[in-house]
Design brief:
106 residues, alpha+beta, 4-stranded mixed sheet, 3 helices
Length: 106
Amino acid sequence: MTLKKKGDFDQVFDNGEKAVSRYFVLYILNNTTKTAAGFIASKKIGNAVKRNRAKRLLRQSFRNITPGLTKPLTAVFIARGNILKVKQQIVDAELKKILLKTASQI
């Protein structure tokens, strides 16, 4: 499930934990009933093609990690500029590392 409404994003920003990576910023809200995620790429990333690629990388990483989650969570990913320079496997590894460190989800 994806987050689409501003209120859903605001709830995660206000009540969730923040974790920072070289490639993205992640806000995690643990006490939820369904697993959901939202993806943000600002115009600082670049044109629409670059922003969509950044969100695509993050979305696929989240899909790869989701089967291994022990509890449902709501997450908001904010892409950073250097995510466009790395491959999918590196983003996956970074997300696993952050989830292990912050939320103990995997």
